[in-house]
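ok trying this again, last paste got cut off
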Amino acid sequence: MNDLFMEIFDKYQCDVYRLIYSYTLNVQDTEDILQRTFIKLYRNIDKFNSSDENVKKWLFRVAINDSKNMLKSMWRMKKVNLEDYDNIASVDKDKNNLLKSLNYVGIKYRVPLYLYYFEGYNIKEIAELMNLSESGIKSRLKRGKEKLKKEMEEE
């Protein structure tokens, strides 16, 4: 197997997994999308080199698109499995509690909050990843923080 592919896979697997899970809230769906995302990387590996900093953005864009497509599918419309949440890869207890709280703010706010706070993307980068305007991302972050604060106060 290609050394570059394995290097990228090892480096970004957990990050991409957590991003996809923030959409699906289901381990099985997350694993399916993760697999499809890295298959696409394998097929396009010749477009990247080992120092390419855009690999993570490319992986996130592919994962976001695939997640959105899966959520639009008829059989998946309102299926949610929260019991699997404890299986999220490499997240400490405080982050896990915050991630659980993110489940209740809605996908519209959950994904920008995740990308901003857990992955460290700035507003411009999130806007590019999600194909939204920067002002749209700013308002989603603001409203999402308010909803998250309310949710955490209730707990």
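PB: full thing came through this time. The longest helix spans residues 3-24.
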